[in-house]
Write a structure and sequence with these properties.
The protein is built from 13 helices and 4 strands. The protein is an all-alpha fold and about 325 residues long. α1 (about 5-30) runs antiparallel to α2 and α2 packs across α10 (about 265-280). The model has no long low-confidence stretch (mean pLDDT about 90).
């Protein structure tokens, strides 16, 4: 049983409780903007959690998971464009597309490793990006506006608070799923493959099937994040598939703690709050200084990430929980 005195237990519990109470606090303060910001954080946390499953525990550094976010978003956008408003249909089509693409692409990429894996996943994502740009009927590089959010019966995604709690519920579900898998035979084989694949093969484990399964599961959760992103922004854009989105997810994972399960959630909270704060940086300093910081906020975040990597080997979450390995 988990020791409730452990920081690895009560820190996640406090964070989840804080996220659950955020809409209530925002309502009491009359600041609905915080629900919007919180929803964006949760969507990025969901995608980062999915990528971390194969990156942190499988050693598969994918620069192409933005492709699945884009697939989820365009499934909603294109179906809505043609008058299909049923959210369950949107979700089913998105997951089928994500599953098919992930299986085909995964069957190719998981046979490779290291820099080759990175470049091939990046190439597939960029192919998806340029394909989306070529779809002039669906907005091309201008993207596709979605008139209304997906209709899911009693789950009224048109309500920002309902959308927030729906994403939060899926994030908790994904956290439970990955936790269960990592504690099972599947998870131990995946981590063993990251450590020494040749030894796992010698022991008789079909590592290809394990890595492919992990890749597909990770991609499906990213597709779910794309479904929510399209409903959140009411927009489907080719930019969702660009390499820099995958890069942001990796930064979030490294920032929070790459080899920890809860780290990506902490990373998403810190990264997006920093971004929001620095872009509107006006603490009363000299106006030129404020302008430089707000305009070049990425540089400030970059310095912060370097400091985290140097002094917190397992990211912010690892530092908070006292993890040393």
């Amino acid at each position: 049983m988990a020791d409730w005195r452990s920081r690895g237990v009560w820190i996640p519990a406090l964070v989840i409780a804080g996220l659950a109470l955020l809409p209530l606090a925002a309502s009491l303060a009359g600041q609905s903007f915080y629900v919007t910001l919180g929803t964006r954080i949760l969507i990025y946390a969901l995608a980062a959690l999915a990528l971390n499953f194969i990156l942190g525990f499988g050693g598969l550094v994918s620069f192409g998971h933005a492709l699945y976010i884009g697939l989820g978003a365009y499934a909603v956008g294109i179906l809505s464009f043609h008058g299909v408003t049923n959210g369950w249909v949107h979700l089913a089509v998105a997951l089928v597309l994500g599953g098919v693409f992930a299986t085909v692409i995964g069957a190719v990429v998981v046979r490779t490793s290291g820099m080759t894996f990175i470049m091939i996943t990046l190439a597939f994502a960029q192919m998806g990006y340029f394909l989306a740009i070529s779809l002039k009927h669906y907005g091309g590089d201008d993207g596709l506006t979605i008139d209304a959010r997906s209709q899911m019966g009693v789950i009224d995604l048109a309500n920002n608070t309902v959308l927030y709690y729906t994403v939060l519920a899926c994030l908790i579900g994904a956290l439970w799923l990955f936790s269960s898998m990592l504690g099972s035979r599947f998870g131990y084989v995946l981590r063993g493959t990251k450590s020494n694949e040749r030894r796992m093969l010698a022991l008789g484990f079909p590592t290809f099937r394990y890595k492919l399964s992990a890749y597909v599961i990770s991609a499906l959760v990213c597709t779910l994040a794309g479904f929510f992103l399209a409903n959140f922004t009411k927009f489907a854009s080719p930019s969702y598939m660009q390499w820099n989105v995958s890069g942001e997810l990796i930064v979030i994972i490294v920032l929070g703690g790459m080899t920890t399960l809860f780290g990506p959630i902490i990373g998403a909270i810190v990264f997006l709050l920093l971004e929001e704060y620095l872009q509107g940086f006006k603490p009363g300093l000299l106006p030129p200084v404020e302008e430089v910081i707000s305009k070049h906020w990425q540089a400030v975040v970059g310095i912060f990430i370097v400091l985290v990597v140097l002094y917190a080997k397992r990211g912010i979450y690892g530092f908070l929980t006292g993890a040393r390995k």
